[in-house]
Amino acid sequence: MKILVLNSGSGSEKASLFQSEHPFPPEPPKPLWEGLIDSTAPGQPTGKLVLKLQVAGHAEENGNLPADSSRAERIRQLLRAVRNDARVLHEPEEIKAIGHRVVHGGAEYSSAVCVDEKVERNIEHFAAFAPLHNEHNLQGIRVAREIFGSKTPQVAVFDTAFHRTLADVAAIYAGPYAWIGRGIRRYGFHGTSFRWAASRAAQLLGRKDDSELKLILCHLGGGCSLAATIGGRSVDTTMGFTPLDGIAMSTRSGSLDPGILLFLLRQGVTVDDLDKTLNKESGIKGLSGLAGDTRIVLPAAKKGDDRARLAIDVFVHRLRAGIGQMLAAIGGRPNAIIFTGAIGETEPAIRAAACEVFAFLGLQIDPEANAASRADSDIATITSSIRVFVIKAEENWQIACECAELLRTTVR
User: Fold this and answer.
1) CA 274 to chain CA mean position, Å
2) Quick check: helix, strand or coil at residue 6?
3) Whose CB among 189, 193, 364, 365 lies 3.0–4.6 Å from 239's, allowing a Cys bridge?
């Protein structure tokens, strides 16, 4: 069956069309079609956003749309492009489901669900917890319905669902007990990425369905978080109530002393200004004064830019601390540490710096393998006591698989 996946992020929209058959292949297939609009990518034409298309893995001629296009119009452009591409679709009805990455599902959802009015209301409700994401995800659902009609099933795959296995001791904040009843707890995010990476690592290790397999997963991209898993189940993670928590990120602060926020509010900073500062003007961007992009900041640091160097050093320090937290959660040495996401897959210097302080556990990185940054490869030395994998993020394929499995088990 053909599954269309829409992954609407805080700064980008990506659509992928997959041919999904059961049982799923061990290796993720190339999408039949892909489209991407990334407002954060460097080198955009002045006043324009680039629409990048690929058919069967081959790049097509790019298109442009105005830089001030609304989120809905960007998504509309993407979905119209695939609907009207006769090379991959003879008719829109060939698409059996549209899968959506939805960041926050609260405590309501532990697996993928078909979108109905109640699900839409819940996604809207949880937008208060993830304002940079859920509203965009909801727009994607509504525009997809506009383009493909109400009869095409739409499926929500929640980032938070993977972490519903957290024990109370890991999920509950040490605030007033009444917070629990108000839904103020740790939810965790990047679950779709973690679910794929954990499964792929188990496959590469030859330990599928191993209840004792212990992994530390590092999703490092625009947003960054870590998770600890035992037997594929999340036991701890660095993000919490919102995607703002945890380690430092590209433009987000990560964890802060809450007293700083009280101080700033008492100094007259508005809630909206604080929201913008913490989400868009902090992290690597805030410290370096440059874009929150390691492709820009790392070279600047190597050339002697002190602020860029500070930004990278702080980022690595917080990343190491996060790995230490995950070590405690699994009770000792992991079988493997996984790096995934745009930064995790492409920045050997970040991986090496993160791992070097754990040499006391017997962890050793192979410099040549690390520099090569090959997808789905082990970059540890033969004698390392911990395997270290670079795993290509496959969120869209994971979403397609979950959509197909839901349709297979619920639609007769």
Assistant:
1) 24
2) strand
3) 189
- The answer to whether residues 106 and 126 touch, using CB atoms and an 8 Å cutoff, is yes
Are 313 and 386 members of one domain?
yes
Residue 159 a catalytic site member: yes
Instruction: Give me the number of domains the chain comprises.
Output: 2
Task: Report residue 321 as tokens.
Answer: 């601390």
Average pLDDT over residues 311-320: 98
User: Nearest Cα to 326, choosing from 122, 145, 188, 120?
Assistant: 188
Q: Given 85, 159, 257, 313, which residue is catalytic?
A: 159
Strand order in the sheet with 377-378: 233-237, 224-230, 214-220, 336-340, 387-390, 377-378
What is the b/e burial string over 320-330, where b = at least 16 CB atoms within 10 angstroms of the residue's CB?
A: bbbbebbbebb
What phi and psi, each to the nearest 5 degrees, are found at residue 201? -65, -40
Beta-bridge partner residues of 200: none
Q: At what angle do helices 117-125 and 134-148 cross, to 10 degrees?
A: 150
With CA atoms as reference, report the closest residue to 290 among 318, 311, 313. Answer: 311
405: in domain: no
What are the pLDDT digits (tens) for 180-216? 999 999 999 999 999 999 999 999 999 999 999 999 9
Q: Distance between CA atoms of 379 and 387, rounded to whole angstroms?
A: 8
CATH number of the domain encompassing residue 360: 3.30.420.40
- Count Cβ atoms below 10 Å from residue 289 Cβ, excluding itself: 12
Q: What's the whole-model pTM score? A: 0.93
Name the burial class of residue 119, with classes exposed (0-12), middle (13-18) and buried (19+) by CB atoms within 10 angstroms of its CB.
buried
Confidence of residue 395 (pLDDT cuts 50, 70, 90): very high
Query: Nearest-CA neighbor of 97 among 407, 320, 377?
Result: 407
